[in-house]
Design the sequence.
């Protein structure tokens, strides 16, 4: 075993110690083998937490191939450990270019999957556009993140999605915890590791007030920042205001912000007109899946000089001497500059992934149409119950009279 693989094994085991729900599923599946003979192609962030997910799938009898869902999210020691220690073929390397990134996706598809697991839908779209000869063998898939679910729903709406996919992102035990608490903490973790900036007293502009944006805004405020939210949806903007945040268009926020974090899942959120209005020293980071939220091409075009000022931080000097600092090439800051979400929260997300795969395999013979499906309520509740059990939390139980009251309509005041 190489030293890199040994380092990865130790870190994977450390993460596993904080993932009791997934560990329980793995131990059960070693006995039951519900995925026996199933071929799974997974395109996910190659982190210690993901390693424990694919270990669980393998324990259930699946043959798994894994590739990375982002060029800067791979932890190379995890790749080494998966290949050398756990014998799970993993095609990933931190910092790959676009050609190698997609070559890895093709390698993950080579064994002809029965099930796909995706984070951003790059594997699914590659399968539908370039590897259509494999589509006949696919029974279903899962999708981990908001951006991917949006893309898959667009495919279903256009009538091109060829197999059923479970939107794991939409499980309450995923988005209410992973997106909010996981993204909130890991985004600030990446920001602080990259810059060592003091948030207390700084103005942080958060673009988007979905579950990820809520978590980022709350954590930034908790560290003493003045937070401004930008939004395009009236209900989310109203919620931000009633949560105590200032809300305004990005053009108005641009001259005020010290730190900008995008979390929308959309393109061109910070554009040239915003960059030109920002103050000297402003820091730019993206917490959305793809590197399209900050217009990096416009930033490069405006710059008269650029240099690396810290690991993972590039400074762009604009005419007049103003400097703007970009973290992680505008890619996911929590993985480009840190380690991603804490294992405790990924425990629930990946439990949903594993159980949804088992559900799909069981439902495949019933003729599920090629649409995007929610995680079954029973799985969501099981994950929540297992997590509470692992945390030592117990609940009240309804009395018979309470059940009758809730089931009836005759009793009033």
Sequence:
């Amino acid at each position: 075993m190489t030293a890199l693989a040994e380092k990865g094994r130790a870190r994977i085991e450390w993460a596993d110690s904080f993932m009791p729900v997934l560990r329980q599923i793995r131990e059960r599946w070693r006995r039951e083998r519900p995925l026996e003979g199933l071929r799974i192609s997974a395109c996910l962030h190659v982190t210690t937490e993901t390693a424990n997910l694919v270990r669980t799938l393998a324990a259930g009898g699946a043959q798994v191939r894994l590739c990375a869902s982002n060029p800067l999210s791979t932890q190379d020691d995890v790749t080494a450990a998966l290949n050398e220690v756990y014998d799970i073929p993993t095609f990933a390397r931190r910092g790959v270019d676009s050609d190698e990134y997609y070559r890895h996706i093709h390698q993950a598809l080579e064994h002809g999957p029965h099930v796909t697991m995706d984070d951003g839908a790059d594997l699914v779209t590659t399968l539908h556009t370039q590897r259509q000869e494999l589509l006949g063998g696919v029974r279903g898939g899962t999708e981990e993140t908001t951006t991917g679910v949006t893309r898959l729903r667009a495919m279903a709406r256009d009538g091109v999605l060829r197999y059923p996919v479970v939107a794991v992102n939409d499980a309450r035990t995923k988005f209410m915890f992973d997106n909010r608490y996981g993204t909130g903490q890991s985004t600030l973790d990446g920001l602080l590791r990259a810059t060592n900036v003091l948030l207390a007293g700084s103005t942080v502009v958060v673009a988007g007030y979905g579950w990820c944006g809520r978590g980022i805004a709350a954590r930034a405020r908790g560290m003493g920042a003045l937070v401004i939210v930008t939004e395009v949806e009236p209900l989310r903007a109203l919620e931000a205001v009633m949560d105590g945040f200032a809300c305004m268009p990005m053009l108005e926020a641009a001259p005020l912000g010290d730190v900008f974090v995008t979390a929308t899942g959309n393109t061109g959120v910070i554009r040239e007109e915003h960059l030109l209005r920002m103050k000297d020293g402003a820091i730019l980071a993206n917490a959305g899946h793809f590197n399209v939220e900050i217009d990096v091409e416009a930033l490069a075009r405006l710059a008269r000089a650029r240099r690396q000022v810290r690991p993972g931080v590039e400074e762009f000097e604009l005419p007049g001497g103003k400097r703007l600092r970009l973290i992680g090439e505008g890619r996911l800051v929590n993985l480009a500059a840190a380690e991603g979400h804490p294992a405790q929260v990924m425990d629930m997300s990946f439990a949903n992934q594993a159980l949804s795969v088992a559900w799909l395999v069981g439902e495949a013979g019933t003729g599920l149409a090629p649409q995007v499906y929610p995680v079954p309520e029973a799985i969501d509740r099981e994950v929540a119950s297992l997590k509470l059990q692992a945390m030592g939390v117990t609940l009240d139980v309804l009395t018979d009279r309470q059940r009758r009251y809730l089931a009836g309509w005759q009793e009033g005041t």
